[in-house]
Design brief:
Layout (H helix, E strand, L loop, with lengths): L1 E8 L5 H16 L4 E9 L2 E11 L2 H8 L2 H13 L5 E6 L6
Antiparallel strand pairs: 1-3, 1-4, 2-3
Helix pairs in contact: 1-3
Length: 98
């Protein structure tokens, strides 16, 4: 099992458009059986910053998630919406509270 964080910084004036795009991922991703958790957040005091926390059954399921057509279409829009490239971190879960 892996955890993934993804951080997005909207360009000034593009916050609402980026938020709507990122929110549109949640219902679609919720239907993917190997996505165990998927939550969109804002960062306190940073209204242009959005953050996903994700849990996937495996690295392969994460890669399949990224290959979904709706995410590929969104990637093409990121240059117009983001101040900088998205920052992704992939972590192996070593231990957790059940």
């Amino acid at each position: 099992m892996i955890a993934v964080t993804a951080r997005f910084q909207a360009k000034r004036g593009k916050e609402a458009e980026l938020e709507a795009l990122l929110r549109s991922f949640v219902p679609r991703t919720s239907e993917e059986p190997e996505v165990l958790a998927y939550a969109l957040h804002t960062v306190s005091g940073q209204p242009r910053t959005f953050f996903f926390y994700e849990r996937h059954a495996s690295q392969q399921s994460f890669e399949a998630h990224l290959a979904r057509p709706y995410l590929q279409e969104a990637l093409a829009r990121f240059p117009e919406l983001l101040d900088a490239p998205a920052v992704l971190e992939i972590m192996e879960i070593l231990d957790e509270k059940d």
